[in-house]
Amino acid sequence: MSKEQVTEQQSGQEGAAPTAEAAEDTYGLPPQIVAQIKQLSPADDAGLAALLQNFPSHMGKILPLAARTMGNAAVRRAMDLVKKWTAKGAAGSQSQEEIRSNLASPADSTAVKEHEVASFMSDKSDPQAPDETPSKPKEAPAAEPAWVADARRYNNVQEYLVEEFNELTAYVCLDDDTGKLDPKAVADWQRAHGLPADGKVGPHTVQAARAAKTKGSAVASTPQADARIPV
Question: What tens digit of pLDDT does each residue of 194-212 get?
Answer without folding.
Answer: 999 999 999 999 999 999 9
